[in-house]
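User:
Can I borrow your eye for a moment on a structure tokenisation matter? Would you put together a sequence-and-structure record for a protein of your own picking? Please set it down just below, with no commentary around it:
AI:
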Amino acid sequence: MIIFDILRIIAALMVFGIHFFIFVPGLPESLYDILSNGSYGVSVFFVMSGFLIFGSLERSKTLKEYYIKRVSRILPAYYAILIVGIVFWGAVWKQMPPDTYAHMGWLRYFLCLNTWIPSNAYGYWNNLWGLWTISCFVFFYLIAPLLKKVIRNFKRSVVFMTAMIPVTVILAKVLQILFVRMGASEPQMLCVDNPLYSLNTFAIGICAWYAYKEGKVNTFLKIAMVLFAGFMGLNWFNRISWGMLTALVMMVFIDLQIRNQKVVSVIKTAGRYSFCLYLVHLCVIEIIDHYHITGGLYAVLAVLFSVLAAVFLYHCVEKPFAGLLKKIMAQ
């Protein structure tokens, strides 16, 4: 389905755009306001994951096969970036503050616990390089088989989706109060970056998957349009509403066909590297900024090295590890 490659590219570019322009001084504030919407590219990835992971579960013969596919898709490249972080932030620049809150240090990231456990420095020990999303992906991948046993059809997925919206919003408020009392750094950000809160967006993708599987796309579109209109009426434009918009676009173009094979090839190639670009770009941009490179040279280097790093991660880390894990699975 070509629409998923298109959405991956859009999502990666949205997130890249907001981080790229953060380090461009002198832009009008109104432009920054527009660019800030790029952060919602995360919702695009979450909704697609909800859809695709349930499909992966159905195609996998065993849970072992499913988990190996998920591990090979996300963790090798993620761990490679963590090693870069340890080298630059920890050893070379010595910029990482002590983790005085839980004394876990880099173990937070390797165990994907950075958004579960508060810290004394949110930008370092909870969300270095925007890595909060990885703990959300990993959490969803882990519990998806259990969710699929409970959410067995479209009707149940609608109930789950609509329930998750108020439940997770209330949960975020409760977590925020708790984190404030604990004296955590950036308690508001920490609670909305929590994997439990992100279930509301994954749930939208799950519902879309059952709608497609059971031939109830039109019903889903009606429900999604009503919910999205309600969000807009309440002036409630956030990750959930953007996720709903993503699902609407995804399902309208779910069977999109492009006849020009050259165009298809370009889209598929860009889609293949999009997640690695999403994962690595902020690491590259902050390294360039650390050496006070600005202006046109910054723009060229940020784009060039982000793309090169994404291609390297895919071909030299993600793909080889995926092949290795497939061999282990075959044994």
Notes: The two ends are 31 Å apart (CA to CA). The longest helix spans residues 295-330.
